[in-house]
UniProtKB/TrEMBL annotation:
Transmembrane residue ranges: none
InterPro entries: NAD(P)-bd_dom_sf, Sc_DH/Rdtase_CS, SDR_fam
Source species: Neobacillus citreus
Keywords carried by this UniProt record: Oxidoreductase
Family stated for the protein in its record: Belongs to the short-chain dehydrogenases/reductases (SDR) family.
Gene3D superfamilies with a match to the protein in the record: NAD(P)-binding Rossmann-like Domain
GO biological process: carbohydrate metabolic process
Protein's recorded name: SDR family oxidoreductase
């Protein structure tokens, strides 16, 4: 069974791998043998994640890129290709949020969230998947969605819209890339306290979340590692594509 999840010899690109959730998932890939490129807008935080991976016995390198800029992503892809030769796994984990009420929302804020959460993922897939196909590399693309993608949550209108779009992108690309041996799936995390959502987690909000989460707690970032490694492994999830994998403590199973 251990061999099913062995990623030795594989290279993973973790876009947003310097974030709270992205870094935990990137570390999980490294722990199972993958060589990991940590890509983030903030190079300093990306290098911190690399240091932690290397100290744990893994192999990683930090790269700077702004997912809202295609030129920036192209540059990062070229640098990673020079470092690793290519990649087999693409983890898309960048994200931003806002608690702005719908009628107070201006289009600059709307565009910023959509640029990072949706447009940025589309561009990342265009650039990194194209190079996988050109090198005839089979592999796995893992997008990070949200519970708000299927049941829109209050206070996070644009975030919910962006993640719903991401689900559609995931399923479209799963169909598009299947002939090339590239699987495309999404993980739907439940509530994992991170910098981008702490501003909307007041006492009332937390109580409401707990009432709708059967396991009655928040998730820990490391609890996303299992699903990530499973989806990354060509042996363990070889017939899985276009899937939305919930890691949400039962949030999606609740009604009333």
């Amino acid at each position: 069974m251990t061999n099913l999840f062995d990623l030795t010899g594989k290279t993973a690109v973790a876009v947003g791998g310097n974030g709270v959730l992205g870094s935990a998932m990137a570390k999980g890939l490294a722990e199972h043998g993958a060589k990991v490129a940590i890509v983030g807008r903030n190079l300093e935080t990306a290098e911190k994640v690399v240091k932690e991976i290397v100290e744990a016995g893994g192999e990683a390198k930090a790269f700077q890129a702004d997912v809202s800029s295609k030129d920036s992503l192209q540059h990062a892809a070229t640098e990673i290709e020079q470092w690793a030769g290519g990649w087999d796994i693409l983890l898309n984990a960048p994200g931003t949020n806002s608690a702005t009420p719908f009628f107070d929302l201006d289009m600059d804020e709307y565009d910023k969230i959509m640029d990072i959460n949706l447009k940025g993922i589309v561009m990342t897939c265009q650039i990194f998947a194209k190079r996988m196909i050109e090198q005839d590399r089979k592999g796995s693309i893992i997008n990070i969605s949200s519970v708000s993608s299927t049941t829109p949550l209050s206070r996070v209108f644009t975030y919910s819209v962006s993640k719903a779009g991401l689900n559609s992108v995931t399923q479209f690309l799963a169909r598009e890339f299947a002939a090339n041996g590239i699987r495309v799936n999404a993980i739907i995390p439940g509530f994992f306290p991170a910098e981008q959502n702490r501003k909307i987690l007041d006492k009332e909000r937390i109580e409401s979340i707990m009432r709708h989460t059967p396991m009655n707690r928040f998730g820990e970032a490391e609890e996303l590692q299992g699903a990530t490694v499973w989806l990354a492994s060509e042996k363990a999830s070889s017939f899985v594509t276009g899937a939305m994998i919930r890691v949400d403590g039962g949030f999606g199973a609740m009604t009333i």
